[in-house]
Fold:
Amino acid sequence: MSKLADSKYAIVGAGLMGRMLAVALAKRGARVDLFEKGHSDADLSPARIAAAMLAPLAESAITEENVVRMGIYSLPRWKEIIANLATPVYFQQNGTLILWHRQDAGDADRFTAHLQKNSRNNKQLSPPQKLDSQSLREIEPSVADRFHQGLYLPNEGQLDNRQLLDALLKELELLKVTCHWNTSTEPDQLRASNNYKWVVDCRGLGAKQAWQENHLHPNPLRGVRGEVVRLYAPEVNLQRPTRLIHPRYPIYIAPKENHIYVVGATEIESEDLSEVSVRSAMELLSAVYTVHSGFAEARILEMATQCRPTLKDNLPEIQYIKHTRQSGLMLINGLYRHGFMISPAILDCALELLEAGSSKIAMELGLRVNQKLDTQEVPVCV
Structure:
């Protein structure tokens, strides 16, 4: 039996990480209370508007090697996690397609060289495959009339983010997790009640103040704004996530079931949650049309914005504060743009820490874990 069984845990924040952790703890026999200031549909979570691409090689061009390792670890774990859910979730592992227009060939060459180097340095990454006109037509015929070369990244994947959030919600119901929707609470209030063995803060940007108060080194939490368009495009038939190399707007297009496409790319250093700007909408829609003319007749289902919780170095972190007389506190944050790609790795590290006080997985993957022993009484925030 797991050491987590029969202990009681509180999780604050029911986005992707909070739901995954609540389900995992409940399946191990723990008693779990989940607190969320928003509705059960995750309307306040960045996970609701994400593209949910699982692309460690593609992301290796812009992120650190330890995040890539977390992404590699997480791909097979996603299969296990989804297979153990009562509700089906769309999961695809059909690789990633990279395209570029002729005038951007120089940028594409540099990008390709970067990925080739990264795959040589990490044997777990499948090398990128260069596509000529014929091989591109074989792998993605719907774009072969507009592009005559490309790059294929094998083994990368994606899932349907909204199906997953709904499936995790159903799992919470089946496991009888006590969910407190539309309830704002502070982790310190729950700790001071001494009703829980551990309180876990998964609030993303909502944990900004708590992260600052409990930080072990200066690493401020900030938001990075992203803008996403969801399209219904029955005339388009992309078989896999497709990225366009472009000097101004390098977009991604993630095809979901039933002709739904999630299009995005913007990253703005801002915590503004107002509507999508005209400029961003024009750039995203213009760029997606250059990939496939069928998008001209697509229907715009939604334009949405959210802010990804990001630490100073754009790397995830777990802070682990054990108290001698009151509930322990764990803070999980900073998943940035890689939430879906790395969350199974973060989940497994958090479970090891809660169960054993250390994590072999975190050491192997290079996830930063900061621990301290807190002997002071925890003040109640009011």
